[in-house]
Amino acid sequence: MRPGILFVLSGASGVGKGTIRSRLREQVPDVYHSVSVTSRAPRPGEREGADYFFRSREQVEAMARAGELIEWVEYVGNYYGIPRRPVDEKLARGRDVILEPETRGAKAVARLYPQAVLIFVIPPSLEALEKRLRTRRTETEETIRARLARAREEMQELHLYQYCILNDDAQRAAQDLVAIVRAERCQMSRVGPEMKRRILGE
Ligand code: 5GP
Q1: What DSSP string describes 138-179?
Q2: What pLDDT does residue 153 have?
Q3: 3-state secondary structure (DSSP) of residue 31
Q4: Going by CA atoms, what residue is nearest to atom 14 of ligand 1?
Q5: How far is the CA of 121 from the centre of ligand 1 (A)?
Q6: CA of 189 to the centre of ligand 1 (A)
Q7: What's the pLDDT at 77?
Q8: How far away, in angstroms, is 201 Cα from ligand 1 center?
Q9: Are 190 and 5 within 8 A, CB to CB?
Q10: What is the pLDDT of residue 28?
Q11: Within the chain, which residues score under 70 in pLDDT?
Q12: Where are the domains of the chain?
């Protein structure tokens, strides 16, 4: 059995990763969506264990100390981290996994999992991103500014990624992600040897 493929989906806060992710879930339901821990307060409508595991700063620090996180960062005043165990278990069982870290997290993941497929979602413009963050009405003015500044910095890291998805239309952007997942699943290096064995009975 081939190990699962690890997909890393980065992109500024507010770029629409959530919408793209839920469309992927509809069309390719067997990809496991890793749920991160965060010390950020839940936004209206966010659910514990579905959007994030909401924990105190101390709890996230304790998890990091215990080696329970693949990586963790502080982003605009809050901690975010990827729980290790579910990801490793799923990959070992051949299940594909998708993570959504920002760029520093993506770098750490790429170091630890060199086969990971790195995808970056970009907004049509920084103005469009700002508009999205504002219409969401979940952020203070200060947080919006800090998030926009981070978005600008993160654009400097595009070269780390193999794929770029422009989210000017959520439907099409989701189709791009589905296409990337399907193409990666067909990579000869991943499935060729297993297919050959199956067909030739070797
Ligand atoms: P938000 O507060 O908007 O949900 O997330 C803020 C940023 O943190 C986004 O860029 C999001 O992709 C990123 N993020 C979410 N979970 C993690 C994580 O586990 N690790 C890292 N490094 N970034 C994360």
Answers
A1: -S-HHHHHHHHHHHHHHGGGGGG-SEEEE-SSHHHHHHHHHH
A2: 95
A3: coil
A4: 101
A5: 13
A6: 31
A7: 95
A8: 45
A9: yes
A10: 96
A11: none
A12: 6-34+95-200
CB atoms within 10 A of CB 8: 27
Ligand 1: residue whose CA is nearest its atom 6: 13
Q: Which atom of ligand 1 is nearest to the CA of 9?
A: 12
> Length of the chain in residues, anyone?
202
For the CA of 40, the closest atom of ligand 1 is 2
Radius of gyration for the alpha carbons in the chain, expressed in angstroms and rounded:
17
Test site for ligand 1: of 13, 34, 82, most ligand atoms within 8 A of the Cβ = 13
CATH number assigned to the domain with residue range 6-34+95-200, chosen from the 4 options 1.10.490.10, 3.90.870.10, 3.30.565.10, 3.40.50.300:
3.40.50.300
Token output for 64: 């990091």
pTM listed for this prediction = 0.96
Residue whose tokens read 């040897």: 193
